[in-house]
Structure formats: C-alpha cells, structure tokens
Amino acid sequence: MGLSSIQHIEPGQLLEFEADLFITALDLESRCTTIARKFEKKSCRKIALVQTDQLKEFSYDENNAYFTDQGFEIISVESKVPDFGVLFSMFQEDTIRVILDCTCMSPRWYHEFFNWFDENQDEYSEVSLRMVYTMAGFKDHERILKVKSVKSFLKKEYEGTQKKKSALILGLGYEKEVSKEIYNKIKPDILYLFYADPPVDKKFVEKVFVNNHAMINSIPIRNLITYPIRNGQIIYQTLIDTILPLRNEYTIIVVPHGPKIFAAVSMLVHLGYPDIQVSYPKFKKSPAINEIPCDEPVVLDILFEGEE
Questions:
Q1: Which residues does 198 contact at the CB level (< 8 Å), separation at least 6?
Q2: Which of 30, 32, 167, 305 is 20 to 30 A from 246 via CA?
Q3: In whole angstroms, what is the distance from residue 190 CA to residue 51 CA?
C-alpha cells in the first residue's frame, strides 16, 4: 500500500465522513476532547490511546471521565508507539475509514501511524484517513527550551558526515534560540526557513520574527517560505517544490518544528521520498503545559491504496 493522495478539507465538512474507527489520545490538555465531542453522534468504534507514564495533571481526570462515559476503549501504550496491528486486527473488510485525531499525539505516534499503512500492502486495498487536530491558542509561555539533540524519526541520530552537501528545511517556532540551536547542531550548507502565515493568531508571526531575526536576515529572501496553517495540501506541494530541485546535489534534512500540520505533512512527504530525513529536536526536560483549544480544527484527508 502507498500514499495515493492528500486533500484539504474545510472545517465545516469535518463530519461528512462515515468512519469505521475513531482514534485519539488521552492527555492532560484542555483541548484533548474537542474533536471527540464533535463526533458524539457518530456510530463507530472509538479508541483513546494513553501512554503508561502520562502525567495526570491539569484536565487529565476530566478527559478520562469523558472518554469513559462516551464508550471509548482506553488502551494503554506500554512501548514507544501503539501496536497498530492489534488496533486494526478486528477489521476484516478490504477497505477501512479512519478518523485520526492527533491533537495530543506525539509526532512519533502519527509518523509511525502513516508509516504502518504505507508498509502494510497486504492488509487493505484502500484506507481513507481523515487526520484532524485542534489548534492551540497562542500563549507566549516565555519558557527557555534547550535543544538536547536532533534525532531522526527513522530511529537513528543525525550524522554530521554526509556524502553530499546538506540542505536543512527548518520549521520556525516562536521560542527563543531553538531554531538557532537546531541549525548549529546540523550545520547545513544551505538553509530554508518555513513559517505559518497566516497563522491562527498574528502574534505568532510577530514572535517568530522577533525571536528568529538574525537567522531570517542571514538567508536569501527566496529561502524564507510561508505556508497557510490550515491547508495541508498546499503545504505538501510547497515542500515538494522546494525539495525536488535540491535532491541530486544535497542530502535533505527536514526539521518540522512549529505547528503540528507542518510536521504531519513533512512525514507524508517522506513516504514518497524516503531519501529525505525527517528529524525533530529533543529538548531538555521542561514543565508540562495545558494547551487551550482555539478556532476551527485543521482537517486533511489522506488516501492510501494498494498496488495493482
């Protein structure tokens, strides 16, 4: 099975999808149950995944009670990623339709989710996946994040020695020094900076420019690229248009820091171009934060089809 297409869906069309399975994550954030509440009247199997070491702070107890009351199967994830083979073993049909609410999922989880469908060619002839998440309201937490390392989603650390020159495609967040630390750890030959504009809140863009001023001024203006935070289909095409001219000459590393939609789309790009390395910064431990839901959800339809 392989990635066949991705399509932007307007928030008003979110419920126009009859799913066989709804998968979300039980977490401590206030926005954890936002998508599930929209699907209360939909009849399908519903699962809430929870890490065994999940902190039980903020809204955790309230979220747990809600999922329990709504008939969700709460499944503990004891390893680093869920066992997708077990999750989907009860579906014997040739096709399956899945809602994936990745609002409170780690990047590693939805990366492995996409990868499982891409690799399991014998399980289904077609998988229709509606990926959705609730954006968080912008809050300047004024926390200092220290980058411990930059690690690949392919279960290996970034290696500094490359046969070819390296090109870094870096998603900008608003935190101080994070982008600079990522750049200094990778030391690429060429740098492209991506940031969300328009975002949900214009204060996000203002903070991105204030806290990344030196890096932004150090690159050609053509290497500073905006993307619409709501439209994953446009983000996908923009990444492809940036990557293709570089592939012959450069080893490409994508570090999709910043909004979750950029990270998810970067992983989808990797499915079609596995020579691209998708990595993520690992931070020294920082306090948990309760993210508050904001605005309408981001929705993206992803189709996986088996090879003829």
A1: 205, 228, 229
A2: 305
A3: 38
Q: Quick check: helix, strand or coil at residue 117?
A: helix
* Residues facing residue 171 across a β-bridge: 194
Largest distance between two CA atoms of the chain: 55
Q: Tokens representing 168?
A: 């870094």
Tokens 């600079």 locate to 180
Question: Which residue is it, tokens 């519903």?
Answer: 46
**For 122-177, what is each residue's pLDDT tens digit?**
778 899 999 999 998 877 666 678 899 998 876 544 454 456 899 999 999 888 88
Find out whether 158 and 277 touch, Cβ atoms under 8 Å. Answer: yes
- Give the position of tokens 């994550």: 25
The letter for the amino acid at 37 is: R
End-to-end CA gap in the chain? 10
Cis peptide before 198, with omega less than 30 degrees from 0?
yes
| Domains along the chain with CATH numbers | 2-136+294-305 (3.40.50), 147-283 (3.40.50.11700)
Q: Of 26, 218, 207, 11, which Cα lies nearest the Cα of 106? A: 26
**Cα–Cα distance for residue pair 229/262, rounded to 1 Å:** 8
pTM score = 0.91
